[in-house]
Amino acid sequence: MPDHTTRTRPGTRSRRMPVPLLAAALAAVLTLSACGGGDPAPEPSQDTTSPGSSYPYVKRPSGLFWDSGVFGHDVEKVNDFTKERGHAIDVLGVSPTRGSWSDTMSDWWLSDETIPKGFTGTLNVSLQLFPEDGSMKAAADGDYNGDFKKIGQMIAKKYPTAYVRPGWEFNIPNWKWKATPENVDEFKEAFRQASKSLKEGGPKLRIVWNPNEGKGGSLPDASTAWPGDDVVDIVGLDAYDWSPPYDEKGWQEHRTKDQGWDYWGNFARQHGKKFALPEWGVIPGGDDSGGDNPSYINYVMQWMVDNRDIMAFETYFDETDDYCKCALSQNPKAKAAYLDWMPRITQQVPAGASTSATAAPAASGTTRARVGTATPSRPATSAKPRSRATKTDTPES
User: Fold this and answer.
1) Alpha-carbon distance 165 to 216, whole Å?
2) Which of 28, 40, 214, 362 has the highest CB neighbour number within 10 Å of its CB?
3) Helix H or strand E encompassing 71
4) Is this structure's pTM higher than 0.85?
5) In terms of pLDDT, which residue wins out, 392 or 214?
6) Distance from first CA to last CA of the chain, Å, rounded?
7) Helix, strand, or coil (residue 280)
């Protein structure tokens, strides 16, 4: 994934090195994969606005099928993104400063410098699992529970139902909180402690357990890091257009491989959870990407429509910096594809409809995987851990 731009305060940037997406070894393709709806076409479907009794109207700022938004620390860029697409933002992605807990609790990411005026949605907050001078063991022992409770209170004061991602992308080696086969039990306990403490501070916060797409370099089987149904509300997946790029062949690989799109969609169903794309986007700044790739946008949008029953939210990573160049303003073909989807994923408001809560709740209970969907088989090899040393670092296959 691309690393986030972090700031110690509004107006002061400190961009970290890009985090490359770790490519997985090819998984055995499923005989039948219900998540993807068969052979996908890279063009938007024409009938997705048809009302259906199984999808009651949900009032949200965007008016779209699910909570939809953008990652951004720049009010002007967020406003431009909103204006271009013609739909308000339901969810704004923010990444508090990583370092000490006092750095994280600096509230620039909750201020008017970051949050657009009149914003009525909620947040998608990525949080470190422990501070720079901390450890996984200390987190698992509950040493930071008080800090997580305070952060939960900070978020919930203005955004009581925010989506919060503690220790996101734990299956790649670039983060200090990476899970490995050796420490995976500690990771699970650390996540449990963070989740429970965040909810002590904000009982309605929605906790997102968020691997990176594919077999990660630090933890080949991310499902072994599942911390328990009681501490997770939503299964999230970060997935960018690279390694391989999302052409027809590449999409089939990403969709059907072990720990690809269909795998995690069905994992969410099997655990009775909603699903999210906390980070997604084209990424011309990365090697082995599809560049300005409208097919990526179309495949992702169609997958979300096909899996609308589990979709909670998505946040487009609209970053302009060179390591990423993900912003739609920099990618006219991808932008055109994105805009083409807006009317197709807009809810039709039925006459006299009663409206429900702005954000879709997390699923409860256990649901079965779709008929005909098999659990992806495990490939024999896994991707090697990657270095963060240079921006030209590319995923290995």
Assistant:
1) 18
2) 214
3) strand 67-71
4) no
5) 214
6) 15
7) strand
